[in-house]
Amino acid sequence: MPSLKPLIAAMSMLAVSAYAQDSAAPGKSVATVNGVAIPESRYEFVLKQNIMQHGSQDSPDLRKNVKETLVNQEIISQAAVKKGIDKTADYRTMMDLSREQNLVNIYLHDYVSSHPVTDAEMKQEFDKIKAHMGSKEYKVRHILVKTEAEAKKIIAELKKGANFSKLAAEKSEDPGSKSNGGELDWAPASNFVEPFADAVRLLKKGETTPAPVQTPFGWHVIQLQDEKPLKLPTFDQVKPQLQQRVQQEQIQKLISDLRAAAKVEE
Fold it and tell me: Is the separation of the CB atoms in 215 and 193 below 8 Å?
């Protein structure tokens, strides 16, 4: 089923225009199309949305583009009304969805504005991420096979002196690493799926897992090639991302709370 996000986003823009048109108080206009005035309030509203949502800088070019967009939109809107599109069921459905989406957007924007993320909350999130990632990053290689028996056989061959890279090229089911001797990029253990990550943390440099490690992808034979201290960016360097992350968590909690308090019948 195709995603509804692009459709809803497009409908939201239509609803913004309709809202601005319906709510505009009599006053100055920026242009007139076939006797219909485009209110300055609508122009200022769309200009502000461009600056806020897209990080645009207020400039003569931006103002000109916004004005041209509104003029073109009014021309097309008049043509649509002339054709009777505003009387169709599809139009009414789209406007209902657009109205609802705009209510959601404004409600969430109001919530975020009234619940600013504090430095303490961002620092707490930063410390949580640091603890999750750990203090080291690892250079590992692995051989992925379908069965435990195959993995045990590979471990036995390695104990007898078989070449890890050669076995990986011959037997590994991981297309992304088999041609490179099973090698993976430097990464903290938290980047790996949990059973794999646990096994990596227990290995010393040069060691191979004594028993196969099972993950949702299959059975792994893992060798730790090297490790080094993990260098993370400072708190100040990732502050904008932390703010966004905490805001998203706040919004998800808000939605969960509202959902829990709502009576939903299906």
Answer: yes
